[in-house]
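ok new one. same drill as before - structure tokens go in, u give me an amino acid for every spot. 127 of them this time. try not to just spam alanines like last time pls lmao
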């Protein structure tokens, strides 16, 4: 991740490096709006869980998962995704009683899906 904070050039670039390559691949960028292909859940987990121990950067898998989370664009999330995110949020200090709802909101927003709670009454439904 590269945070740009130059005058007139603010944003975040998400780059992927590969061992043995002399170049990087830009996965996405954030310049007010998200652009790029993003990552599937499986790609995100594979990157988060496999740090290059000899390379510079974040090695902790929970921190890596949370740093990569904004890149998630996968509309087909596995059942285990929410539990994995809840665990990561609680490790970094999120209250256990609110971590699951926070994880649901994050996953719904990041995968561009609307979130619907059947207990919510709609002002449009006439109920």
């Amino acid at each position: 991740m590269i945070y740009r904070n130059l005058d007139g050039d603010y944003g975040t670039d998400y780059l992927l490096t590969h061992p043995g390559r002399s170049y990087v691949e830009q996965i996405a960028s954030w310049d007010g709006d998200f652009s790029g292909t993003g990552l599937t859940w499986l790609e995100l987990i594979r990157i988060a869980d496999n740090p290059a121990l000899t390379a510079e950067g974040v090695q902790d898998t929970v921190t890596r998962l949370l740093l990569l989370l904004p890149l998630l664009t996968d509309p087909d999330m596995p059942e285990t995704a929410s539990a994995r995110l809840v665990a990561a949020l609680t490790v970094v200090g999120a209250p256990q009683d609110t971590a699951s709802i926070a994880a649901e909101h994050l996953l719904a927003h990041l995968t561009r899906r609307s979130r619907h709670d059947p207990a919510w009454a709609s002002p449009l439904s006439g109920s």
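The chain has four helices and four strands. and btw Strands lie at 2-6, 9-17, 24-30, 34-36.
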